[in-house]
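Homework help board

Subject: predicted structure for assignment chain

Our instructor gave us this sequence and asked us to write out the predicted structure in token form, then describe one feature. I got the tokens but I'm not sure how to describe them. Can anyone check?
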Amino acid sequence: MTEKVKVPRGVDDAIKWAREKGYTDCGIILATQFVPIKFNFEVIARWMVDGENDDRLLDALVNGYEVEPEYKVGDWVVFVDILGASLVGKVEGFNDGGFIRTDIRLDDMPKQWFLAKSLRHATPEEIKVEQERRLWAGIGRGIKEFRIGDTVELTRQLGFKIYLEKQIEVAEKQYELGVVTGVYPGESFISFEECDSNA
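My token output:
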């Protein structure tokens, strides 16, 4: 079974409007090609400017379609790059061309723009991992990168200071078990409890 074509909400609304007015599939395609300014066909025509969408419109009309998910500012989204890596970030804005601005960094370039169809909503687990990555990155470290001199706080309001390499392994294990609530790297403190509340 082939995957159904995904269309933006505006294209879905325009197709529904056209069908309510009695347009056939062929009529929708012809009106979109030759009189796009008339009524709602301009929305479909703008979507078709992409180049790939001529055949996709026909497929959507004949075989049915799904509406692309809608995004809001602040939504957590995932972009999968050409190497298959999932990059997680937050939606920051939109433009009229169907592009979404995110805080995902590609090649150290902030504020990347993506087509909506190239994104998906992040899962709660992906959000938690990205929040943790950002917390650790805030102190210049990778996730679970404990160092000698850190003070590790545990869920039972207990903690310990790392003096030896062996204690780093203990801290990593405690972190994996989910009992580390934070770490004092020098003078600052990072709370991991915030990662669960924003997912």
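Reply (TA_rk): Your tokens look well-formed. For the description, you could write something like this. The first strand starts at residue 5 and ends at 7. That's the kind of observation they're looking for.
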